[in-house]
Amino acid sequence: MRSVFSSCPQWSRSVLSAAILSTLAMPTLANTISGKVVDNKGKPVADATIKLNKSTVVVSDQSGVFTFDAVKLGQSEIHVSADSYSHVTQKVTVGEQGITDLNVTLSPSVMEVIDVYATPLHGSTIESALPINVLAGDELALKQAATLGETLKHEVGIHSTYFGPNSSSPIIRGLDGPRVLITQNGLDVGDVSRVGPDHVVSTETATATQVEVLRGPATLFYGSGAIGGVVNVVDTRVPTSTDTQFDYRYAYNSVSDGNEGSFNFNTGTGNFAFHADGYIRDTDDYEIPTEEGVLEGSSSKADGFTIGSSYLLDNGFVGFSYGKMNNTYGIPGHGHGDDDHDDHSDDHDDDHDDGHDEHEEESVFADMKQTRFQVLSELTFDESFINRMAAKFAYTDYQHVEIEDGEVGTTFKNEAYEARVDLHHHEINGFKGAWTLHYKSSDFEAIGEEAFTAPSKTTSLALAWLEEKHLRDDVLLQLGARVESVDIKSTDLSDIPNFDFTPLSASVGFVWDYQQGYNLGLSMSLSQRAPSAGELYANGPHIGTSTYEVGAIYDVEMHGDHVDIELNGVKPKVETAKNIDLTWRKFEGDFGFVISGFYNQIDNYYYLENTGLYADGGHDHHEEGAIQDEEHGEGLPIYAYRQADVTLKGFESEFIYKVNDALKTSVFADYIHATFDDNVQGKYLPRIPPMRTGLVFDYQQDRFDSRLSITRYFDQDNVGEFETTTSGYTLVDLNVNYYLEGYGNDLVLFAKGENLLDEEARVHSSFLKEVAPLPGRNFVLGVRGSF
Fold it and tell me: What single DSSP character describes residue 207?
């Protein structure tokens, strides 16, 4: 083409150039789409959200009417959603006369159907082959807690690590730590919470608009660190609208004499949108239903803010945000070398010094600070093969120091960069899809006497391909594949080897809408995970779990009365998970349910093996520690990372029934059975949550609504070697909201009663179950609203 064009005379090149430019500049004929949203009885549905090609958004008026102006000719896709209704997606062809009589019928749904942002191919909670949990709106406000784990622990299939009230991460189907990725707007939060259960998750639900949980392998979207699932926290820190709104919340709780407040503010002018948010939280040690009275070392003081801005374009937006977080929190159950090693815990309770003078000489606490810069952009292109591009970038500077008896013991630092580009292509033979290019870099360092793992840098580069197609109107096919290159390098000790891994993942899924209001989801996947730096390089005392951890690259052998920890020269293998998931849903009418069963077989699973040996507390890498026998052990028990084949299987179920317009009830249950395939260290994996069932009543009338929930946690006696059983318990909670009119858009006075029976409840999945039971009876009073 270049040679033909250059061979033309000067005048013809000018004419040709002018013709091309005029063609490019010529506007495409545009028309109007107008219609009405109604329910299955023909009544108008007001405030329905109608999206045109996933970019332009309008809302139906009180008569259910909506209009799109200046619509380009050709085929378009309209997605319609509304509270308490199923979503509808339909294709329309816009001609020169436009469309003036488009009617969309929504069917009532007893379940909340919410759009999901955690996957490149956006869908709703009922359009995925794998089950997805979403907390948003009033439901998120109702369940909001100080930590991400506690916020999500009531969701079916999700439990909490519960390292006290300040450090609590989600457990998804028995997996946590480096197997469950925590993201904010689709990008890794960049903290060190995956390194140890005593480290806080550096994201805040107080200023979030939505929290999404992808159960099962999500490696196709996020990489090998998501082999167990993803929790994505969605907020508006990079705004996409110039609408002005101010949201606020304040609450007081009795169990820790705690106060917390937060706000979200969005506004804009012209093409510029602006955002600001902030929060503050201050709690004392919380009361527990035992003779001790309070759990020492459970107080906290946290605050943070974010500012952001975007430039809005006709075909998308580009924006940024800047945020800071501070959190000074107690570390309960801290000790060195107590005799009780069964659950990696001890009976030495320490307190937190954040202005509280009591037990100052024994205080053990952490001081966390994080700075995060984020850039998000999304652009649509109607007339090109690549019809949408979503680009994301984040820089995170994280640090926390652990302070004991007023002196800094260990400092943890992590500097993380992440960039991601999703390129969506125009529909080809019914296939809609996207390519993802994804880069991550994490520079981790632990400094101090309890730096249990060597400094390291982990980088990864990945390419993923996702496709979906309706094989027919009622069958959706979902395909995906990902290849990843992971490099892990020690940045400190020259004799520690570097490693590179190439995890591969692939999946196929089907969603079959076999009957109006019903569907079946089937997903089969092969997912691989590269080990984390901590699983490889650990060699030292871990303050959080009261253990001496040894990485997979070392052998632990007893020579006389000493233990030798030496490099073994063996390259660790990637974990390989073979997962099958079957989900059955009914989502329309007054009765609905979601029932899921899963089977996950993982080869070369990394786990901590209790060696039965004890270190004398030496803190230097490769140091020989005095060994005692198990019965008379002193110092820290030595746990070594080893690999074995394991199987996790179980089910999740939820049934919802709308008794009448005011009353709705639901019943749920979940169960996980996790075993070693070869009984390498007992039969069962340790710290697997017990079976759980629950009953919930929701009542809403005029300006008043309430929720009563009763949850039974059963005994857990399927325990790992050197692990103790945990007794069951019942939690009863009551929530009440009262809505006031005339005070902005939405003013709510709320009250909560938590653990009303004052049960002594110990979380089996917690490293601190022996010393840190759940809080006792708690009452919360608060107000939230917007204008």
Answer: G
Q: Amino acid identity of 296?
A: E
Residue 702, pLDDT score: 85
Residue 770's SS3 state is coil
- Report pLDDT digits (tens) over 286-339: 999 977 689 988 999 999 999 999 999 988 999 999 999 999 998 887 643 333
What are the structure tokens assigned to 151, written together? 């916020």
Opening angle at CA 699, ends 694 and 704, nearest 5: 135
Phi-psi bin for 635: left (phi > 0), alpha (psi -120 to 50), beta? left
- Domain boundaries, given as residue ranges, for the chain: 219-786
Per-residue pLDDT of 61-100, as tens digits, reads: 999 999 988 787 777 888 888 888 888 888 888 887 788 8
Q: How many CB atoms are closer than 10 A to CB 478? A: 25
Helix, strand, coil shares of the chain as percentages rounded to 5?
5, 55, 35
| Cβ pair 524, 566 in contact under 8 A | no
Q: What are phi and psi of 536, to 5 degrees?
A: -95, -50
- Euclidean distance between CA atoms 121 and 129, whole angstroms: 13
Question: 224 with 503: CB under 8 angstroms?
Answer: yes
Q: Which residue in this structure is represented by tokens 């380009």?
A: 72
219-786: which CATH topology? Maltoporin; Chain A (2.40.170)
pTM of the model: 0.86
Mapped onto helix, strand or coil, the DSSP state of residue 60 is: coil
Give the type of residue at 194. Answer: R
> How far apart, in whole angstroms, are the C-alpha atoms of residue 394 and residue 225?
17
Distance of alpha carbon 427 from alpha carbon 412, whole angstroms: 47
The Cα-based distances of 602 to 175, 368, 677 in angstroms read: 11, 34, 10
